[in-house]
Fold these 3 entries.
Entry 1:
Amino acid sequence: MTAQDARLSRINNKTPGMTILSAAEEWLGSRSFDGEIRQMRQEDLPLIEWGCEYLRYRRVYREVFRNSLNGKSILWVAVTSTGEMVGQVFINVNPTHAYKLIPSQSMLLSSFRVKREYRGCGIGSSLLKTCERCASERKIGFLWLNCSKSNQNALTFYRNRGFEIFRSDPGDWQYIDHNGNIRREVDPAWSLCKRID
Ligand SMILES: CC(C)(COP(=O)(O)OP(=O)(O)OC[C@H]1O[C@@H](n2cnc3c(N)ncnc32)[C@H](O)[C@@H]1OP(=O)(O)O)[C@@H](O)C(=O)NCCC(=O)NCCS
């Protein structure tokens, strides 16, 4: 086990909603993340819009949050000590449409992102480890996600953390934006999965 793995392991052996302050400070060195990873709360909903950048997904996020209240999803956020929302990942607990492709119960990750100025500080790795721990605790065999084919940085990030491509996805979906208009986004993606022990 590498030193980084050992630190990640210590961080992620904590309980859900744990603060990663002290371990993260040690881990991140000069670019320390003075904050916590915790489950999302209703009052966080405006903050995950990152100003106007993700305003168009307001209704989608509200729906996902409602799902989290009845156990269909688990939403993790990374928040600085000053309350700035700097990262997030959503877990869909029961994505039945994956069963034909992945031979086990699985969890689907989505909306995974870290604010640009906080990238490379280990926050993404910690969010991912948190998801892996969630899956492991529930005896879920696989995590999977879709990643844009043009997003080489993220593809490398996932592959370096044990994810493998298992199919091509058209990445064609529709949603209703904050103004009530139907929007379509097409972004061809790779689906990647990782076995969780
Ligand atoms: C991919 C992402 C979530 C990783 O979060 P992060 O906090 O930067 O991740 P970490 O600091 O734990 O790890 C950094 C690793 O990601 C890589 N990386 C990917 N994109 C990066 C970026 N824009 N800036 C810095 N590092 C990046 C680094 O090379 C590093 O790789 P390595 O440790 O395997 O050598 C984040 O870069 C991000 O939000 N990217 C834009 C949104 C996105 O692509 N989301 C995924 C959609 S499927």
Note: DSSP finds five helices and nine strands in the chain.
Entry 2:
Amino acid sequence: MNDPMMPIESPSSGEFETVEPLQVLLYYNYTPITDAETFTVEHKEFCDSLGLRGRILIGDEGINGTVSGTESACQAYMDWFASDSRFMDTEFKIDPTDEHLFPKLSVKYREEIVALHLGEDDLHPRDLTGRHLSPLEWREALKAGSPGEDYVLIDVRNDYESDLGHFRGALKPPLNNFRDFPEWVRETLADKKDKKILTYCTGGIRCEKFSGFLRQEGFEDVSQLHGGIINYGKDDETKGELFDGLCYVFDKRISVEINRTDDKRVVSRCAVTGEPSVRYVNCALFSCNGRMILSEEGEAQFGRFCSDECKARAAAGERSSVEVPGATGEPEFDDR
Ligand SMILES: [Zn+2]
């Protein structure tokens, strides 16, 4: 009889390859960076030396990034943040991952690390922003009344993100650009300035600026979910309660689970069959790469295309990725 404690001999015994686990880090920090363009070049070299992959935006106003790398590389990266007075209060959302979530490393200088384009009205969240609510405070605020009546709950993400999942009762602006939010607010919420406002986004960075903008516009009672949906989903007390569907993320995973309670609902539907589905894919036509929710069944019926036009263009010989099920084009980098 085999002793269960005995290691099983294998032909390659002694040649085990140790693969170090990988992690993904999501972070931002609104902190003044002097000579941010030079810093961008240096930071890219540093990230390269650690073998990190991902996308990082750097501006005079701060840093915003998602990277994947080995656990030791991620730790070295976070240690570096902790050692620099400009960045030492950066909060990282850390998740394990089986593979790198980006094809390469991109570190870019931008005027804004989230593009709200407020122009002359631009503000720094260190000077003006909404109240930060912890996951527990957030859940309490949601349960303290009814959305639409007692408070205005705003999903500060693009429509293709909120379509896949959102907090129950949230207003989901029909926008696919963050910079369109100010106009939407002025058109839609002008009579809500005395209401309690609750805002949330993926990791918190968009709310930092957006809630500051709301206060600048005269909204009196503005709160934001600290750390965003991702942080809320990690919280062991709230367990993602009241978030329905999945959270869209800007990397290879496309979406992550948030709600770990028994009370959760699928809120998205297959574009072809109309049946509930959380399967988010990109249009197979490379020149389109548009996002859509498409079930396996829908794809079998129609193909992985977002429109008749894309399908026809692929059929006419334009480059597409139809031969690789589940393959997506490179996810577009956006703000979190
Ligand atoms: Zn398309």
Note: The pocket of zinc ion is lined by residues 283, 285, 288, 290, 305-307, 310 (CB under 6 Å).
Entry 3:
Amino acid sequence: MKDLIISHVADIDGVSPIILMKLCKLKFDYELKDIDEIEEYMNDLLNTDLSIYNNIYITDLTVPESIYEKINNSSYKNKFKVFDHHKTHLFATKFDYVTIDINECGTTLFYKYLKTKFKFKKNVDEYTDHVKNLDIWLWQEKNDILAKELGDLFTIYGKEKYIEEMYLKLKKGKKFNLDKFENKLLEIEQDRIDRYILKCEKDMIVIKYNGLKSGLIFCEKYKSEVGNRLSVNHPELDFITMINLSGGISFRTDKDIDLTVIAEKLNGGGHKKACGAPIEESTKIELIKNIFKGCEILDNKENSNR
Ligand SMILES: [Mn+2]
């Protein structure tokens, strides 16, 4: 029998549970999903034969309430274990197979669970700490540069290569550190990021929304880096809004402000200082119609899905 793990595709907190499973030499399948894909994926999954799986883990993803209803009524219910740290997921702590702790990250919660069953080398303690420091924004206050560098390496490598590289590194059992080659890659990448942030900053538009002042930029990559830097550079702003037409809206702040209020207004969610919201298909259509006045929409994603 094998296990199944479903985790978040977007960052090192999402992919690191896969690395941990590999280190345990477990037989398993994995699926990396984005937040807006999880409902449809879980609906399909719960309609398939899950008897081939021993355990089904869900990490670093908020599972919608409707899916919990299905799991609870499923004969496979006892196979599920959920580990997450998103505030919007706290409602699910009432289920005994769900662990939510907003002071941890998906990886550290899953690691604590695995440690009750498997033995890990000390470098995995170090690694998972870095993941947590990056994921719940502790790296700056703890001056954990390595945490930030891991996030950058993830951007450079992409998910599969990152998983493979970190797995090989951790398997060796040496003190967790980056090598010369990785440092060179980071140097080149940092240069690229700096130039990108300058460009975003130059085009920033300031708005007032819900009583708060926000610097709004169009930004498709390096979200946490851009959000972070612009928050620091612009103390006069309450928060930074990053719009990625194909990926959604992200909100960041370094102030003591709960941005989930704004995210939820826009059908989104996440953490107090880092959250987001989707961009509706109709909004994109409106934008296109606004640019190409008088145009006719012949085909779009929403229609072809039906
Ligand atoms: Mn996370």
Note: The mean pLDDT is 95.
